[in-house]
């Protein structure tokens, strides 16, 4: 299993844009991303996402860690 890097919420959103996610709105300190065929994502706008949160977001986006690393 690949080790998940420490990245910011904004960097995660940039990677998700490459596969078609679109920023919908901001709710508090979370960015809401939508995709026509995939799950909606709620990404915390933190300087550094915890590895557990990041792994959960990757799973919710129906990606593997290696697929996500290619997007970075």
Q: How would you summarize the topology of this molecule?
A:
Layout: H1 9-17, E1 22-27, E2 30-34, E3 41-44, H2 51-60, H3 65-71
Antiparallel strand pairs: 1-2, 2-3
List keywords for this structure.
3 helices, 72 residues, alpha+beta, Metal Transport, Frataxin, Chain A, three-stranded antiparallel beta sheet
C-alpha end-to-end distance = 17 Å
Average pLDDT: 94
Within the CATH hierarchy, at the fold level, what is the topology? Metal Transport, Frataxin, Chain A
Question: How many structurally independent domains?
Answer: 1
What spatial form do the alpha-carbon principal axes imply? Answer: globular
Helix content: 25-40%
Rg on CA atoms, Å: 11 Å
Low-confidence stretches at least 5 residues in length (pLDDT < 50)? none
Q: Quote the beta fraction.
A: 15-25%
CATH class: Alpha Beta
The description of the largest β-sheet is:
3 strands, antiparallel
Determine the CATH superfamily: Hypothetical protein
Provide an overview of this structure.
There is one protein chain. The protein is built from three helices and three strands. By secondary structure, the chain is of the alpha+beta class. It has one domain: Metal Transport, Frataxin, Chain A (2-Layer Sandwich), CATH 3.30.920. The protein has a three-stranded antiparallel sheet, with helices on one face. The mean pLDDT is 94.
Summarize the structure.
With 72 residues, this protein is α+β, with helices and mostly antiparallel strands.
């Amino acid at each position: 299993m690949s080790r998940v890097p420490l990245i910011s919420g904004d960097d995660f959103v940039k990677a998700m844009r490459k596969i078609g996610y679109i920023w919908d709105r901001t709710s508090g300190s979370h960015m809401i991303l939508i995709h026509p065929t995939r799950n909606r994502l709620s990404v915390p706008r933190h300087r550094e996402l915890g590895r557990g949160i990041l792994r959960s977001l990757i799973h919710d986006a129906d990606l593997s860690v290696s697929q996500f690393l290619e997007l970075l």
